[in-house]
Amino acid sequence: MHELIRSAQERRNAVAAALLVAGLLAACVLYVRASRPGADAEERADDSKVYLRQMEVYGGTANVLASELREWFAGLWTGRSLAYTVAFLSLVVAAVARLVLTPLPPLPPAAESGGERPGGPEP
Prior knowledge:
Elements: H1 2-33, H2 39-42, H3 49-75, H4 79-101, H5 109-112
Helix pairs in contact: 1-4
């Protein structure tokens, strides 16, 4: 029985490691293949002070903040930022997979026999 549990632990670790390695390899490929943004991409009309002032006049400060948040989130999915995003997501997926594949501990003997509940006696 001990060999079966050890084997299950090894499989769980192997699955999590495989997910992590695959994600990090994909992130490395994306990082190498990503083109660097030019000067034109950084000096857009959306970033001018006049444009930001007009956005604030028409929609308030919340409009400017929402626009910046939207642009930041859209930027996560392009170029080298995409490589960082994929690397982070692969870490999260590997950790969640390892957590989900971890078996729950067995119930205490009192709970299995229908005795007193773990939360204490009923009111």
